[in-house]
Amino acid sequence: MSEAAVEVCLSLPNKFRRLLDENPYATFLGLEVEARADGIHYQMAFREEHVGNVLIGTFHGGILASFAEVVAALHMAETLQLNDVPECSSMTFDYVRPAFAGTLRAQPRIVRAGRRFVVVFVDIFLNDSLVSFGRFIYAR
Question: What is the pLDDT of residues 22-34, one digit of tens each?
């Protein structure tokens, strides 16, 4: 995990920090997680490893979907007090507009937590503009 991400994570519960440390892809993405009074905030800054179109400097679509999937799993693990990060059973991801270089912000929410499945929606924003959103389904 990068030093910046570790500094941001210091205010998070120990279990949440452990889940982040055990996820090498979160480190590759440069995922930053911060606990604030209004909830947990998830961000990812643009890096050269994230480029999808070098001509216009946008995030790769796979990076966006991966960012959302990691956020969904972490949000579900924290909200439902799970000890491990769950594995996604199914996902649908939609791209609204190009995500140009900048810092992305993810807003996850659990829309259904049933006995067999949990459905998590994640909206990805660049500044205040929605760039993509996804639905992630996890088996209990």
Answer: 778 888 888 888 8
Question: Which residue from 33, 27, 92, 99 is spatially nearest to 61, judged by alpha carbons?
Answer: 99
Reduced to 3 states, what is the DSSP secondary structure of residue 75? Answer: helix
Rounded to an integer, what distance in angstroms lies between the CA atom of residue 113 and that of residue 99?
30
Q: Closest Cα partner for 97 from 140, 128, 54?
A: 128
Residue 61: partners with Cβ closer than 8 Å, 6 or more residues away: 52, 95, 132
Percent of the residues in the chain that have a pLDDT greater than 70, as a whole number: 88
Per-residue tokens: 123: 């909206």
With a pLDDT cut of 90, the percent of the chain lying above it is 51
Tell me the C-alpha distance between 7 and 135, whole Å.
30
Tokens coding 133: 């959103």
The pair phi, psi for residue 128, each rounded to 5°, is: -110, 10
Delineate the domains of the chain, giving CATH numbers in brackets.
Answer: 3-139 (3.10.129.10)
Token pair recorded at residue 16: 């949440």
Count of all residues that appear for the chain in the document:
140
